[in-house]
Amino acid sequence: MGDRWLLRGAEIITCDPEQADLPRGDVLVEDGRIVAMGPQLHAGDCRIVDLSGKLLLPGLIDAHRHTWQTPLRALGADWTVMDYLAAVRVKLSPAFQPEDLHAANLAGALEALDAGITTLVDYSHCVESPAHADAALTALEDSGIRALFAYGYAAGPQQSTALPTPASRLQDARRLRSTRLASDSGRVRMGIALTEMQVPWEQSRAEILSARELGVPITAHCSAWPVSGPSEVQRMAAEGLLGPDVLFVHCTWSSDEDLRRIADSGGAVAVTPETELQMGMGFPVTGRALRAGVRTTLGCDVVSSNGGDLFTAMRLALQVERARAHEKDGLSRVLALKAARMLPMVTLDAAEALGLGRVTGSLRPGKDADLIVLAADALNLTPLNRPRDAVVLQAHAGNVESVMVRGRWAKFQGALVDVDLATVRRRVIEARDAVLARVGGPDALLRGRADLSAHWDMGGGAKDA
Ligand SMILES: [Zn+2]
């Protein structure tokens, strides 16, 4: 397809503070960027797409996903966090081979694109060898999605032979940063995903400093259960290690003071409502984080348990927060958290949390053309009253008709572009079969559960079932 597009006649939600929504407008895309927006643009030589009756939005940003778990879809439907850690992190993760990881990340990234996610934070903590990291990264590149490939420093139950020490993992991250991920303007960029900070603090400090040395964003699971001793945020604050380059995940057990510390440092929080509610991580921190002034984002986290689209995540986070307010107030008179407030969490705020606020996350001239088209003429969106609210409360992934990343259609009028879906499906099924065979089948996942206290400090807060 050509690289000059006029997207004509859509209702446009810009998610940009300086660019008003347009009830009916055009967007001109050239060389991957938005070059003009407005009613009735005249563009000369270009390809025109008629978007009458459609909604045009910035592409959505998933701030937290373990894409490698795609072959494990729904296996953890009834798991608590203890079950999840025992089955996925201890047993299944070491059973992945590089080709499984490629199949998983490709299928998972395409699933995300199909659901309107144009940018993904891939918290890739299944790195058993340099070849694993390469395969996961290659799949993101192959998929067409924009991504932060967050190299996961967490080791399995035993350090692998290929990466036998924490230091060897840091070295492997340096290898990628100096070769395939040297650019800070590529579609796939580098980040670092920390090991949960329940290892010796010296290791956590070294991981954080390594990310700073590489000059890449940091993301870290944080306070998903009560731990004994200082919190992750307290530890980092004590050594001046907080910063705007840190995206904390969950924070369900973070104190208000910790949230203020994150806010003061310019850092951000990723809420993953579905996992948090299911697994017993406590209530999503959405409302407390917003009140503390923290940049707040949303993630799908794991399709091994829950859904992989952000419409569900927005709705769940919103309504849980409202339920909590009603419970606290004894039936609130006013809903403090407005539906439309969820949109920045999956667009501009998420882009800024990743250091990509000038590149993506909203629609305005000068930004990359990362955008999605929703079928506003679908029955579940007709009549279209209050478009922003309808997107949050009523749209679903099936309404995503077209998806553009950096000016290239990843999905066009209902179908993924240049994707051999039969092969993608076959490969992710084969990966599932291979991984499950290596661990003795699905019935063996929770059998002979390992002693989790060797890996994670549950602080006595989470009770084993
Ligand atoms: Zn996670």
From TrEMBL:
The protein's name: Amidohydrolase-related domain-containing protein
A Pfam family of this chain: Amidohydro_1
Organism the protein comes from: Corallococcus terminator
PANTHER family per record: AMINOHYDROLASE SSNA-RELATED (PTHR43794), CHLOROHYDROLASE FAMILY PROTEIN (PTHR43794:SF5)
A GO molecular-function annotation: hydrolase activity, acting on carbon-nitrogen (but not peptide) bonds
Domain Amidohydrolase-related: start-end pairs: 56-409
NCBIfam families: PRK08204.1 (NF006056)
